[in-house]
TrEMBL record:
Residues 1-144 form the MGS-like domain. Belongs to the PurH family. Keywords: Hydrolase, Multifunctional enzyme, Purine biosynthesis, Transferase. This is MGS-like domain-containing protein. One of its GO terms (cellular component) is cytosol. The keyword Hydrolase applies. PANTHER family: BIFUNCTIONAL PURINE BIOSYNTHESIS PROTEIN ATIC, BIFUNCTIONAL PURINE BIOSYNTHESIS PROTEIN PURH. It comes from marine metagenome. One of its GO terms (molecular function) is phosphoribosylaminoimidazolecarboxamide formyltransferase activity. One of its GO terms (biological process) is 'de novo' IMP biosynthetic process. Pathway: Purine metabolism; IMP biosynthesis via de novo pathway; 5-formamido-1-(5-phospho-D-ribosyl)imidazole-4-carboxamide from 5-amino-1-(5-phospho-D-ribosyl)imidazole-4-carboxamide (10-formyl THF route): step 1/1; Purine metabolism; IMP biosynthesis via de novo pathway; IMP from 5-formamido-1-(5-phospho-D-ribosyl)imidazole-4-carboxamide: step 1/1. PROSITE patterns: MGS (PS51855).
Length: 278
C-alpha cells in the first residue's frame, strides 16, 4: 500500500504515519510535511517531486498537480484499461490520501490582513488531491480530519475498513472542501449587496434534548464564517442541556438586550418578553 500525505495541521500525524509505516505502507509526502516526517518523526518517506519526476515550482504553488500523482489516485482498480495505463506510464497507485488545507479562514479573518496574504493561503493542490481521492473512494481512503486518524488506522491495519467507512470519509472530504470554498467565496464577497447566489457554512454545535415538541429531535448549528457571538457560541455554565425551545427563548432574549446601550436583563417565554429591566 502507498499513502500520500500533505497536511497543514500535523495533529496526530506522528502516531498515524508511524502506524502506517510499521504496517509496511509506503509513504510519499510534500514540502513541510516531508521535512516533518523525515527530520522529526524520522521515518522513511519519499518526496512527491521524486515520484512525479518533476520539481516543485512557483515557490511551492505547484507540487502535486501532475499526472503521476493524480493518475495514481484516480485509477479504478477494477478497470483493466486504467491499470494498463498506469503500467504503461510506470505509475504506481495510491491507496490512502491524508490531507488538510491551508488555514484560509483563520488567516483571512485576522485584522489588517492583506489581499495578497489571503490569496497566498488559498490551497490548490490539497483540494485537488482530496477531490480525486474522494471521487475514487471505493479504492482510495481519504482522510481530512486528524480526529479520524486512530480509528482509520486501526481498521485499515486490521483489514476492517468497510465500503461504508470509505464512503463516510469521502462525504466528510467533500463537505470539508465545500466549507473551505465557501469561506473563500465569503471573503471575496466583501459585503457586496444582494448577490445572485451565496453559500452558508454551518457546523453542528450540539444535539438538543428534543425539538419543538418532546417527540421531535433537534440539533443546534452555527455559522463558521460569522462573528463568534450569540447563543450558538455561548457556554452553558449551569443546569441541564438546552432544548430547542430553550435555544429560541435564549436567542430572543439575546437580541432584545442588544437593543439597549447599557446592561439589560429580560425574561422570555415562548420567544415573548415577559419582563425587562435596564
Amino acid at each position: 500500500m502507498r499513502a500520500l500525505i500533505s497536511v497543514y495541521d500535523k495533529s496526530g500525524l506522528v502516531e498515524f504515519a508511524t502506524s502506517l509505516h510499521n504496517a509496511g505502507v509506503k509513504l510519499v509526502s510534500t514540502g513541510g510535511t516531508y521535512k516533518f516526517l523525515a527530520d522529526i518523526v524520522r521515518i522513511p518517506v519519499d518526496m512527491v517531486s521524486e515520484v512525479a519526476n518533476f520539481p516543485e515550482i512557483l515557490e511551492g504553488r505547484v507540487k502535486t498537480l501532475h499526472p503521476r500523482i493524480h493518475g495514481g489516485i484516480l485509477a479504478r482498480r477494477d478497470q483493466q484499461s486504467d491499470m494498463d495505463e498506469l503500467r504503461e506510464h510506470n505509475i504506481l497507485p495510491f491507496d490512502i490520501v491524508i490531507n488538510n488545507l491551508y488555514p484560509f479562514q483563520e488567516v483571512a479573518s485576522k485584522p489588517g490582513v492583506t489581499l495578497e496574504k489571503a490569496l497566498d493561503n488559498i490551497d490548490i493542490g490539497g483540494p485537488s488531491m482530496i477531490r480525486a481521492a474522494a471521487k475514487n473512494f471505493p479504492w482510495v481512503v481519504v482522510v481530512v480530519d486528524p480526529l479520524d486518524y486512530p480509528w482509520v488506522s486501526d481498521r485499515l491495519l486490521e483489514g476492517q475498513l468497510s465500503l461504508e467507512d470509505r464512503q463516510n470519509l469521502a462525504q466528510k472530504a467533500f463537505s470539508h472542501l465545500a466549507d473551505y470554498d465557501a469561506s473563500i467565496a465569503s471573503y471575496l464577497y466583501d459585503n457586496k449587496p444582494f448577490l445572485s447566489k451565496f453559500n452558508l457554512t454551518v457546523s453542528k454545535t450540539a444535539d438538543l434534548r428534543y425539538g419543538e415538541n418532546p417527540h421531535q429531535t433537534a440539533a443546534l448549528y452555527r455559522s463558521d464564517t460569522s462573528v463568534r457571538i450569540g447563543i450558538p457560541f455561548s457556554e452553558l455554565l449551569h443546569g441541564k442541556p438546552l432544548s430547542f425551545n430553550n435555544i429560541l427563548d435564549a436567542d430572543s432574549a439575546w437580541k432584545i438586550v442588544n437593543d439597549f446601550p447599557n446592561m439589560a436583563a429580560v425574561i422570555v417565554k415562548h420567544t415573548n418578553p415577559c419582563g425587562l429591566a435596564s
